[in-house]
Design goal:
Helix content is about 40%, strand content about 20%. An eight-stranded parallel barrel has the order 4-5-6-12-13-14-15-16, surrounded by six helices. It has a three-stranded antiparallel beta sheet with strand order 1-2-3. A three-stranded antiparallel beta sheet has the order 9-10-11. It binds one RNA strand of 83 nucleotides through helix 4, strand 16, helix 11 and helix 14.
Length: about 425
RNA sequence: CCAGGGGUGGCGGAGUGGCCAAUCGCAAUAGACUGUAAAUCUAUCGGGCUUGCCCUACGGGGGUUCGAAUCCCUCCCCCUGGA
């Protein structure tokens, strides 16, 4: 089972640090999970996992299911054995997010947040030719009343190649029909055997209308009841988190937080879309954390930009997961104390990425010019080392955040990082 | 010396009379990435500005043509055979 103790909390703010314990181990919070979609980290050999500074990982039910990895996990005796990280805490996502990312999100080329720069670009050059070049732009139309302001086009139905009904989700896999629903997701997640499981939910998009977001949220609440019900038939070793939805709408977010927060679950995910800007994310999170029971952990699903982490911790979030450290590493982006750096711009330097960094790349003295040569040669070592580095960076970042909460210097830490991020 | 093939933008390599400042790939440059569709994607990539046009460009020179990277002549260079 799971227990959560808040070890540091200032009365005047929602910021808190704590310890999350499961039968497998414990982590201090706030903490960010490294995403191991297929139960392994991209561009890292599996036996490197146990050397990582990260204590928390998240594995994806949809991908391990569709790629037929779950039987291998079962054979290995569970996800901890399969990944060879017995003492670490592992979560599984329910597969609900893939309904969005492979369905609506893919069709409309949209993520969990609408990017600010696209909106700005759009304002000034709506009628220029650039318009047709980006599919995202078709979702914006001129506000005819103001002439210059923008009105977002919203979808009233899911407009989704994946069929979502009360029963669950239907999709095609290798040309054959397939179904995912709360009961199946619980079953799969039990087989995987992570410490924390997520309820089966639907992640809505910033392009969904209020009406659709509400309809979807209410369905997600019913799916939560079914997830809880299905979970009860299994052994109580795994902790099931309920997921708050409601998009960017305050009344929906508050309603969802009340309903999900009232359920007999040991923790919560906060999912879905968060509107257009970073301020919107922080505001949306604050509506939710104001209502959720404070003694239980909150995991902000899929968020991990550094500014977003600080602002969410500020609002009382304990757990995160994000692909940014690993994905951007493969995309040649380095995270450092001086900001994000494109390796491309540093490729002539015969020196390691960062002094005083404990990652293998920096300890072994791998130079940035060497990394660049490996990238050009498509040598996997390049992304292996950059991935190790970015993971170390995020592990250090989260440790600094925890220490700053305990030392009462959280806002100074935040200001330091806001100078570069 | 003879025969055959070839010389195209930083590199590789299309194009064989107009739609060619020249497909495409690489490199370069700038950017993106938030419960992984992603070791991916987007944009720029001869020069100038009043962004539509002008200039310079497909080895050098000359010619044919309204028009040439593309056809002809000539020179230079490279590759493959043969003396």
């Amino acid at each position: 089972m799971l227990s959560f103790d808040i070890t540091s909390k200032k009365n005047s703010t929602k910021v808190r640090a704590g310890i999350l314990r499961t039968s497998c181990g414990e982590i201090q919070t706030p903490e960010l999970a490294i995403v191991a979609t297929d139960a392994q980290l991209r561009s890292l050999p599996n036996d490197v996992l146990k050397e990582l500074p990260s204590r928390y990982f998240i594995v994806n039910t949809y991908h391990t299911y569709t790629k037929e990895i779950i039987p291998k996990i079962e054979t290995a005796g569970g996800i901890h054995s399969y990944m060879q990280i017995p003492g670490r805490i592992i979560a599984t996502d329910s597969g609900g997010f893939q309904v969005f990312s492979l369905g609506f999100g893919r069709k409309h080329n949209i993520g969990k947040l609408v990017q600010e720069n696209i909106v700005n670009f759009n304002k000034s050059s709506m009628s220029s030719l650039g318009l047709t070049r980006r599919s995202t732009l078709k979702h914006f139309v001129m506000d005819s009343r103001s002439g210059s302001g923008m009105t977002r086009f919203k979808f009233d139905d899911s407009d989704n190649p994946i069929k979502i009904t009360e029963k669950g989700v239907e999709f095609e896999l290798d040309g054959k029909p397939n179904v995912l629903n709360p009961e199946i997701s619980m079953d799969l997640q039990h087989t995987i055997g992570a410490d924390i499981m997520m309820a089966f939910d639907e992640c809505t998009s910033p392009l969904n209308s209020y009406e659709y977001t509400k309809k979807s949220m209410e369905r997600t609440h019913r799916w939560l009841d079914r997830s809880i019900e299905a979970h009860q038939s299994f052994e109580e070793k795994q902790a099931l988190f309920g997921i708050v939805q409601g998009g960017e709408y305050q009344d929906l977010r508050e309603e969802s937080a009340r309903i999900v927060g009232s359920k007999e679950v040991p923790g919560f995910g906060i999912g879905g879309s968060f509107g257009d800007f970073h301020e919107a994310l922080s505001t949306t999170v604050s509506w939710v954390t104001a209502i959720l029971p404070p003694e239980k952990p909150r995991h902000l699903l899929g968020i991990g930009k550094i500014r977003d982490i600080f602002s969410a911790v500020q609002e009382g979030v304990d757990l995160f997961d994000c692909v940014i450290p690993t994905r951007e590493a493969r995309h040649r982006m380095l995270y450092t104390k001086k900001g994000r750096l494109y390796l491309r711009k540093l490729k002539h330097l015969d020196e390691p990425i960062e002094k005083n960094c404990a990652c293998r790349a920096c300890v072994e003295g791998v130079t940035m010019s060497q990394l660049w040569r490996w990238f050009l040669a498509h040598d996997l070592r390049a992304s292996t080392y950059t991935t190790l580095h970015n993971i170390q960076f995020y592990a250090d970042l989260m440790r600094e955040i925890r220490e700053s909460i305990e030392n009462n210097t959280f806002s100074q830490r935040r200001e330091y990082y806001y100078r570069y991020y």
